[in-house]
Design brief:
The complex is a heterodimer of chains A (about 400) and B (about 240). With about 400 residues, chain A is of the alpha+beta class. Chain A folds into 2 domains: about 5-50 and about 265-395, no CATH class; about 60-255, no CATH class. Chain A has helices spanning about 5-15, 20-50, 65-75, 85-95, 120-125, 150-160, 205-210, 235-245, 255-295, 300-310, 315-355, 365-395, and strands spanning about 60, 100-110, 115-120, 125-130, 130-135, 135-140, 145-150, 165-170, 185-190, 200-205, 225-230, 250-255. By secondary structure, chain B is an alpha/beta fold. Chain B has one domain (about 30-60, about 80-220): Rossmann fold, CATH 3.40.50. A 5-stranded parallel beta sheet of chain B has the order 6-7-8-3-9, sandwiched between helices. A 4-stranded antiparallel beta sheet of chain B has the order 2-1-4-5, covered by helices on one side. The chains are: A alpha+beta (about 400), B alpha/beta (about 240). The interface of A and B includes residues 9 and 315 of A. Bound molecules: adenosine-5'-diphosphate and magnesium ion.
Chain lengths: ~400, ~240
């Protein structure tokens, strides 16, 4: 133990108090788990939300709240309040700035999964994650009016395969409504998993959707349009033009901006949660401090012996700081490790139960900061008994005071 | 050669209290083994702190091996103590979380000078010293300090004070927690080993009966009356 006498002493003394030390380490580990867990979950959800739809410049729908339109079209949560007329769809598609537009017609459910009417452009232009296109695992895109292409989860959950016949009804579909609304479909394609709400969607052609609603495809209105621009700088000008559309009340949103509005709302709760779990770490450190101070009186003899063999007051203080630093470091490492294990175990369940994909929750700089922060906070806490011991060594002489 | 210890016009008082210990002159030669007698509360432990460089006199000089302790910084006094002094307390000499051998080696842990005097990691010397102090070294190496009797603990403490050959050993009532038989045995081996290493020994005790075993007896009350600045001041 000659190379680093203080470290060797600190480790030996920690080992001798293993029970108490383990309790302190576990307290810190669990509070670190809570903190990093909250942070990773919210960041992971955010990242996965942001990766749901990329490379779409504008989403256009009937006028409502931007967040509302975003939730309905991208996350298939709720319904758009109104539709865009077929005429407006055509006019917008013809605008010079518009490189492509994909119509979305939402509204129906099939056994709890959303049915989306669209056209073949959907498969060409929809991008998620790092710019990934939608790929078929089996079969082909829809062509005829009775073709349906399933998201991966729909096929898996409902046990549908290529060729499976199903019927789609107008309305919410759970309890079959009247007969004449029923339309027979056949599965022609199944998409690869994407980790986005696409997995939970049944895709049919606009023609089929119009038929379900008893309309003619050419005149049928749609819920929304996904727009790709020919030249990006024109985006705000186009947005303004859509927002002031003369014939009907329309709204154009930038997906990133609308998400930002959503985060502004949820961010408050996230920060509150993060703050609370940060306080839990502080409480953990305080309880460690309590037991450190309780143990300090018993260590007075220890200090006298170390003084006698030549340890200085700074080394005595350093020893105590080193001990709590090691406890903090161990607690943080274990907490961060537990978070990773927890995410690894719970990730698939979150995906399955709530369709919540988590992205970017692996180890990163954030964990390094947490590790450094908790370790440094523990070192600061160690300064309290260290200062007491330091002052005492200066006042006490060598007498152990039996 | 400079004396092991040279005290000159020393005055010390605890902070906020009147001067308590005053010693005009005290010299202890190298290799000399001195019995320093003083009743309880006379200031023996206080003097230990002063010689060890942990307490600072208000006036006067403490020269240890020719080094004026007041001339050193606090850090340098700690180093000096680590390099040249071995200390044995009355009890609780050992760190409970270290093994017997580690406790002995602790004597050299803060002193590269003393470490340089022992070979390798010091285990050989430690076991030899324990053996010389009358302990079964092979058995000791396996024991936790909590399992040792007080007599055994004091010998382990003596081994720590002696390891690495410091020039001055300070023993503060090391036998007062021992029974008569253990006390005599301890005294035998301590005197024998300090004689062998050539270290000077200051053995502080209230127990007059032990004085005959030493080269010289010094009475703390005789060499320095506490300076009685006021009637309440200081010691018994
Ligand atoms: N840390 C301290 N602060 C103030 N007074 C002290 C301290 N330690 C000891 N004393 C006082 O110094 C006196 C001598 O104590 P001490 O040197 O321990 O005597 P001895 O070791 O001879 O029994 C006592 O009156 C004691 O109260
Ligand atoms: Mg004493």
């Amino acid at each position: 133990m000659s190379r680093f006498p203080l470290l060797a002493l600190a480790l030996a003394s920690l080992r001798a108090r293993l029970g108490t030390v383990l309790l302190m380490v576990m307290t810190l580990a669990l509070s670190t788990l809570l903190f990093t867990g909250v942070a990773k979950l919210s960041d992971g959800m955010r990242a996965s939300f942001e990766a749901t739809l990329v490379e779409t410049d504008l989403i256009i729908g009937a006028r409502s709240a931007p967040v509302n339109l975003l939730l309905a079209t991208v996350f298939r949560i709720g319904d758009p309040p109104a539709n865009i007329s077929a005429r407006a769809v055509r006019q917008i598609g013809d605008l010079d700035e518009v490189a492509w537009s994909v119509p979305l017609s939402l509204g129906d459910n099939h056994r709890g999964f959303r049915v989306l009417g669209t056209n073949a452009d959907y498969f060409s232009y929809y991008r998620f994650g790092a710019g990934m296109p939608l790929l078929l695992a089996e079969g082909r895109q829809f062509a005829a009016a009775e073709d349906v292409v399933l998201g991966a989860e729909v096929a898996r959950d409902l046990g549908y395969a290529l060729g499976t016949e199903l019927s789609l009804t107008h309305g919410l579909g759970q309890a079959g409504i009247s007969d004449h609304d029923e339309h027979a479909f056949r599965v022609v394609g199944i998409l690869r998993p994407t980790g986005t709400p696409v997995d939970r969607t049944l895709h049919v052609s606009l023609v089929a959707m119009a038929e379900i609603h008893g309309q003619i495809a050419e005149d049928a209105s749609v819920s929304a349009l996904l727009i790709g621009l020919a030249n990006k700088p024109s985006i705000l000008r186009l947005k303004r033009r859509i927002d002031t559309w003369p014939d009907e009340a329309l709204l154009a949103i930038l997906p990133g901006q609308a998400l930002g509005e959503l985060w502004a709302v949820t961010g408050l709760a996230e920060r509150a949660l993060l703050g609370i779990s940060g306080f839990v770490i502080i409480v953990g450190l305080m309880s460690a401090l309590t037991s450190l101070l309780t143990g300090l009186a018993a260590r007075r003899r220890e200090v006298a012996v170390l003084r006698a063999v030549g340890a200085g007051p700074l080394q005595i203080g350093g020893l105590l700081v080193l001990e709590t630093t090691l406890i903090g470091f161990a607690g943080a490492i274990i907490g961060i490790g537990l978070t990773q294990v927890g995410l690894w175990l719970a990730g698939p369940m979150l995906q399955l139960r709530w369709g919540l994909g988590l992205l970017g929750t692996g180890l990163g700089m954030f964990d390094v900061y947490v590790l450094a922060g908790v370790t440094m906070a523990a070192a600061l806490v160690g300064l309290v008994p260290a200062c007491i011991a330091y002052r005492r060594t200066l006042m006490d002489g060598l007498d152990i005071g039996v | 050669m400079t004396p092991a210890l040279d005290l000159d016009s020393l005055v010390f008082g605890w902070p906020g209290a009147p001067p308590f210990l005053a010693i005009d002159q005290l010299q202890i030669e190298r290799g000399e083994r001195v019995f320093l007698q003083g009743a309880s509360g006379a200031g023996k432990s206080t003097l230990l702190g002063l010689i060890g460089g942990i307490l600072q006199p208000q006036t006067g000089h403490i020269r240890v091996l020719g080094q004026d302790m007041s001339a050193l910084s606090g850090r340098a006094r700690d180093r000096f103590r680590a390099d040249h002094l071995g200390v044995i307390f009355q009890m609780f000499n050992l760190l409970p979380f270290l093994g017997v051998v580690e406790n002995v080696k602790l004597g050299c842990q803060f002193s590269p000078v003393r470490r340089a005097r022992i070979s390798g990691d010091g285990r050989e010397e430690t076991l030899a010293l324990l053996e010389a102090l009358g302990l079964d070294a092979a058995d000791m190496a396996k024991r936790r300090v909590g399992e040792l009797s007080v007599g055994q603990q004091q010998r382990v403490a003596a081994a720590r004070a002696l390891l690495g050959g410091p020039e001055l050993i300070l023993a503060d009532e090391p036998t007062s927690a021992l029974d008569a038989a253990n006390r005599d045995q301890f005294l035998d081996v301590l005197l024998e080993q300090t004689g062998k290493s050539g270290a000077a020994l200051i053995f502080m005790s209230h127990d007059e009966a032990l004085a005959d075993r030493f080269d010289r007896r010094v009475g703390l009350e005789a060499i320095g009356k506490p300076a009685r600045v006021n009637p309440q001041g200081g010691a018994t």
